[in-house]
Specification:
This protein is mainly alpha-helical. It is 69% helix and 0% strand. The protein contains eight helices and no strands. Helix 2 runs parallel beside helix 4. The radius of gyration is 15 Å and the shape is globular.
């Protein structure tokens, strides 16, 4: 997997989530929507790896997680995002919504409203997390 693969997967998972929601399947849509953010953050982590450099083992091992807070830290975006959050309460709210997602969502029932809230927090042009990450991947 490389940076481009993760970028493409982020976009694909988002489209799949939207298609599932449109088909009346909010549970799967919620689950896949979170993976779009995970893949986007992993693209940012991959960007940190220089061509022909042997990656640091701890970074590689730690990157194999579904924890969005940890991926944000590993992508070295947390400090920059914190400064944005101070000035943008909508983005802060959206981040909190996105960070409630975890891979265990596959075992949870989600409503249409839950899924719409997550998708809005991810892709909104006003304070959405994915547009912000795209500028950095």
């Amino acid at each position: 997997m490389n940076r481009t693969d993760f970028q493409q997967l982020a976009e694909l998972r988002l489209r799949e989530a939207e298609a599932l929601l449109a088909a009346g399947l909010p549970d799967g849509a919620y689950y896949l929507a979170g993976y779009s953010v995970e893949c986007a953050l992993k693209a940012c982590i991959a960007k940190r790896t220089q061509l022909h450099d042997f990656p640091e083992k701890k970074l590689v091992n730690d990157s194999h997680t579904h924890n969005l807070k940890e991926l944000l830290r590993l992508a070295e975006l947390k400090t920059e995002l914190d400064s944005v959050l101070d000035a943008d309460p909508e983005m802060r709210s959206n981040l909190e919504t996105v960070q409630d997602w975890s891979e265990t969502a596959r075992y949870q029932r989600k409503t249409v409203l839950d899924t719409i809230a997550l998708l809005t927090a991810i892709e909104s042009q006003e304070g959405g997390l994915l547009p912000w990450i795209r500028q950095r991947w």
